[in-house]
Specification:
single chain, 378 residues, mainly beta, four-stranded antiparallel sheet, 28 strands, 5% helix
């Protein structure tokens, strides 16, 4: 497709979206009505772990947005244990000490993954209104840890206004600072040296770069389609990754454009993508491959279905179809398997994980969790 044709298509899509979403301007919509996914497979025959048994290595940890729990998932057999953490958990970050930090609507839960016990629930400093469920609920969304594990950074959604980044001291289990950022902070990432924190503002078309020492924020607009439509636009950033080779931020849009952001200069370069699908979660492997979750067309007939894009460092892509919407992705330690959560922030979610062989593209569905969003490999 040439540039002129793609531009015309984008303008047509934007006009269609605006017309369809005119009544939803105040909702900050993210995606269109998703086709409900087929039912997840029946729960596996995995035996639950005894309460006193240590957690085996190699399990997955999911944040169960449809429950108040995180689930420990055997990647072959399914859920083996769950721990109550707080209302509507969203993102999770795993420390080298075995503690998981989970962003919930109520606060940040701290879970000892070795013993499967919640050891703390740290309330936010920022008022976010009633504790609720659903896509637009207040409270924690993206979360990340500093490389030394001394700080946790959580993006807190404040319905109806801009969000904040709350900084937690992980030794004292308390919030030590609050920094203003963009609207609905879907994702939080940290530079390899820990010097900067990057907060993706979904409804403000931006990334806020926060200096870890001074906590001074810098707004970087990331809007390869422009900002027309505001809160009603579907063409907004969701998740980012930090490229390990050079520290650039990679933000995928619509399976059409990859925004490559230099956080030092704030400049954005656009590279083409090929999946042609609304995109959410992203991860990067140790060898530099970018994995991006496609949730499906924003409107029926205007794009392709759900998928997982595997993008090599040279820009070549393989696109593996998925069955039904998904949200986020994690990669096995050997880099050969992807685990894609079926939770999804909009309608069409399902209670499970799709396991993808990254060499062949073969997939299998695994019943796990309750609307799982965030995921980590223990």
């Amino acid at each position: 497709m040439n540039r002129r044709t793609r531009g015309a298509r984008t303008r047509t899509r934007t006009r269609s979206v605006l017309a369809a979403m005119a009544a939803a301007l105040l909702l900050g919509a993210c995606a269109g009505n998703a086709t409900p996914a087929p039912p997840a497979p029946a729960p596996s025959a995995a035996s639950p772990l005894p309460d006193t048994a240590p957690t085996p290595q190699g399990l997955l940890l999911t944040a169960d947005f449809g429950a108040d729990t995180v689930s420990f998932v055997d990647p072959e057999r399914g859920t083996v244990a769950s721990v109550t953490v707080g209302r509507a958990p969203y993102g999770t970050a795993l420390g080298a000490d075995g503690r998981a930090w989970v962003a919930t609507a109520e606060g940040v839960a701290v879970v000892d993954t070795r013993t499967r016990v919640r050891v703390a629930l740290i309330p936010y400093r920022t008022g976010t209104g009633p504790v609720t469920d659903g896509e637009y609920r207040g409270g924690g969304m993206g979360i990340a840890l500093s490389p030394d594990g001394a700080h946790a950074y959580v993006g807190v959604n404040v319905p109806g206004t801009t969000g904040v980044l709350e900084v937690l001291d992980t030794a004292r289990n308390e919030v030590t600072a609050v920094v203003p950022v963009g609207r609905r902070p879907f994702d939080v990432d940290v530079s390899a040296d820990g010097a900067e924190v990057y907060v993706t503002g979904h409804d403000s078309f931006d990334v806020t770069a926060v200096a870890a020492d001074s906590l001074r924020p810098r707004r970087i607009e990331v809007a390869p389609y422009g900002t027309e439509g505001g809160l009603a636009s579907w063409l907004k950033p969701h998740y980012a990754v930090v490229r390990p080779t050079d520290g650039q931020l990679l933000l995928p849009f619509e399976g059409e454009r990859l925004a490559v952001v230099d956080p030092r200069t704030g400049r954005t370069r656009i590279e083409p993508m090929t999946a042609d699908t609304h995109q959410h979660g992203a991860a990067v492997t140790a060898d530099g491959r970018l994995l991006v979750v496609g949730t499906g067309a924003v409107r029926p007939g205007d794009g392709k279905g759900p998928s997982l894009t595997v993008r090599a460092p040279d820009g070549t892509e393989r696109v593996y179809p998925l069955q039904g919407p998904h949200e986020d992705v994690a990669v096995s330690r050997d880099g050969r398997t992807a685990y894609v959560t079926g939770g999804y922030t909009r309608d069409g979610y399902w209670n499970g994980i799709t396991v993808v062989d990254l060499d062949t593209g073969a997939t299998r569905r695994l019943a796990a969790g309750a609307r799982p969003l965030g995921i980590a490999v223990l």
